[in-house]
Amino acid sequence: METLAMHISNGIINGPVAAIFAALALATLTVCVLRGRRDLDDRLAPMAGLVAAFIFAVQMLNFPIFTAGVSGHLLGGALAAMLVGPWVGALCVAVVLVVQALVFGDGGVAMLGLNITNMALIGTAAGYLLIALLLRVLPRTPAGLAVTAFVSALVSVVVASQGFVLEYWLGGTTDLGSNLAGLAGTMAGAHLFIGIGEGLITATTVVTVAKVRPDLVYALRGLRPAAAPTVPAVGGVR
Amino acid sequence: MGAGHSHVLYRESSSPVHRLPPEVKIVAMVVFTIAVVATPREAFWAFGGYALLVAAVAALARVGPRWLLGRALIELPFVLFAIALPFLGAGERITVAGLHLSVDGLYGSWNILAKGTLGVLASLLLAATTTTRDLILGLDRLRCPQLLTQIASFMLRYLDVLVGEARRMRVARISRGDDPRFLWQLRGFAAGIGALFLRAFERGERVYLAMLSRGYSGRMPAVWQGAGAATAGQWLVAATVPVLAASIAATALVLG
């Protein structure tokens, strides 16, 4: 029975590997900031904030899987990629992780590079690649969108969890020997269930938003004839 | 939202630690944590030194040990992982009380427990003495890209919006005959999560437009006014803790 929160705390992975991943995360986030600036307009700015707040809130809900032992929480990488695009999306998840590490001590500060790589970079990238692929293949119906959101969220969570296994293999502070394969299996199995929960939440959220305000879903931009830019009504009438 | 943008972990006080500018505290905390992580795990005395440093700062900030230890329970999942290590680790094994334990695994779990706990305590101290608004102010002064601080400040602002909308929707469900209890309210919550997101977005968009129309340009006024930035003296005062921690780490590395 192994219990793993997604946020790696201090001392799990050794210093050099953590430093390498911190440098990697910093470099990738810089690219995201440069590309994200182009994306961020008056519609995306509040959306990015809300997506980050939403991810922050759902990450607080740790839900137990099956009987006991393993618990996990949602990552939100695929949801962010879907609603605000891969660049701003990765930044949203990264911001959530930084604030959680600084304020709640969830995930060690020295391990931030690892956590950002797993959840913000790998999770969002895997999610976005799948979204881009599936949206081309699947029919453009609410059902197609729901399947896209579900599958990409599910896969992104499992892939992100394998990022931890890779990091542990590179620089785990305790040599697990042949048990590493067991760790990979446990992580994948546990996160399959988290992924199902994540997939359901992502799908319901995205489908609802796409139904009412399709202009807000980044992944649908360019796939449909451009909707007339929404001019917010004076006085904020809905 | 009138209650100000502090958070659950903030402990209102006017101790010397509270009065330090946020950017100084963030840097001190990060350097301290890196020093702890860089310490070889066999140097048991060094971790005692770090614990003393944490205790001294906690006393100075008037944060009680009960509060600190209670909040540190967030680390619990990793503690369980640490307990599993002596059973899973490879290599040389010893027998303690009839259990075959891996020596490397035992060191590993000590490593995770000590470094993890010290890291959590350090960030809790930062959280207890700094409001979230100040935290973002500090990040901005540390030249964090404006895009990131903007997302962060909206995130913290919209958390209240989100919680408020969730509460309103719950009241609406109850007043229409829903009877939420324990786990069953999850179903109602899950069914309404898309609507919650949309409602929160539309409210958040109005908040954003209201800010824009009052002159918001991506940074909060406190930032570009530039008042209250850390002085050299404050940097020196706050540097004592990370410098002490770094010298402990350096000594441990040289001796180890």
Please tag this protein with its features:
heterodimer; A: 238 residues; mainly alpha; Arp2/3 complex 21 kDa subunit ARPC3; two-stranded antiparallel sheet; 2 strands; disordered N terminus; B: 256 residues; 2 domains; 3% strand
What does this entry look like structurally?
- The complex is a heterodimer of chains A (238) and B (256).
- Chain A is mainly α and 238 residues long.
- Chain A has one domain (15-222): Arp2/3 complex 21 kDa subunit ARPC3 (Orthogonal Bundle).
- Helices cover 67% and strands 2% of the residues of chain A.
- Chain A is built from 7 helices and 2 strands.
- Chain A has helices spanning 15-39, 44-60, 77-84, 86-104, 112-137, 142-171, 179-212; strands spanning 63-64, 71-72.
- In chain A, strands 1-2 form a two-stranded antiparallel sheet.
- The longest helix of chain A is centred in the last third of the chain and has 34 residues, at 179-212.
- The radius of gyration of chain A is 18 Å and the shape is globular.
- Chain B has 256 residues and is mostly helical.
- Chain B has 2 domains: 16-130 and 229-255, no CATH class; 145-225, no CATH class.
- Chain B is built from 12 helices and 2 strands.
- In chain B, strands 1-2 form a two-stranded antiparallel sheet.
- In chain B, strand 1 and strand 2 (99-102) form a beta hairpin.
- The termini of chain B are far apart.
- Residues 1-5 of chain B have low confidence and may be disordered.
- Chains A and B meet through helix 1, helix 2, helix 4 and helix 7 of A and helix 2, helix 5, helix 6, helix 8 and helix 10 of B.
